[in-house]
Amino acid sequence: MRGKRVITGMMAFQALLLVAQKPLYKDPKQPVEVRVKDLLGRMTPEEKFWQCFMIPGDLDQAAKGQYHHGIFGFQVSASNKGDGVAGQILQYNASEDAVALTKKINAIQKYFVEESRLRIPIIPFDKALHGLMKEGATAFPQSIGFAASFNPRLLSQVSLAIAQETKLRGIRQILTPVVNFFT
């Protein structure tokens, strides 16, 4: 009888350990293939669907729980237009400067990492056709102007400046459909 209780206790303890363990997809020591397989196995079809989307907007007008399934990316504006989730998370000066935008992106990222079911971070993105399209960022000539310069080194320097201005604001992906390099 006592042996059964010991075995039952050991099984319960092992079950608790399994529940308390971090999911494989959250363990950076695991191989990427293992992490991906584990994450995909946990995702609902709706969560997989939303991981294919990048949308303009942010959480200012979102109802709490609207993005519980997660989303791949947001094109975030720094203006506070409402009292939605982001407005509740962080109050900030609505001027469109790098500090305000970075704080807002961090607040939105925190929401997805703490509130969505699988806690998958977003990728903040924006447009940078000829410079980051944010107040205070440098606006460079359109691509046709650079093409007329016949100066690939200049275009490389401009692209680096755009990347630095983007990174300083917390944006990790930019849409620049006409930048091509030929060497």
Query: Unreliable stretches, pLDDT < 50, 5 or more residues?
Result: 80-95
**Helix count, per DSSP?**
7
Number of domains: 2
Strand content: 5-15%
Helix content: 40-55%
Shape: elongated
For the largest beta-sheet, the strand count, sense and barrel status come to:
4 strands, parallel
Please provide a written account of the structure.
The chain has 183 residues and is an alpha/beta fold. The protein folds into two domains: 24-126, no CATH class; 127-175, no CATH class. It has seven helices and four strands, in the order H-H-H-E-E-H-H-E-H-H-E. The chain has helices spanning 2-20, 32-42, 45-50, 85-89, 98-115, 143-149, 152-168; strands at 54-56, 73-75, 123-127, 173-175. A four-stranded parallel beta sheet has the order 1-2-3-4, with no helix packed on it. The longest helix is centred in the first third of the chain and has 19 residues, at 2-20. Mean pLDDT is 78; it is low at 80-95.
Describe, in short, the structure shown.
With 183 residues, the chain is of the alpha/beta class. The chain has helices at 2-20, 32-42, 45-50, 85-89, 98-115, 143-149, 152-168; strands at 54-56, 73-75, 123-127, 173-175.
What is the topology?
Elements (H helix, E strand, L loop, with lengths): L1 H19 L11 H11 L2 H6 L3 E3 L16 E3 L9 H5 L8 H18 L7 E5 L15 H7 L2 H17 L4 E3 L8
Parallel strand pairs: 1-2, 2-3, 3-4
Distinctive features:
183 residues, alpha/beta, 2 domains, 45% helix, elongated
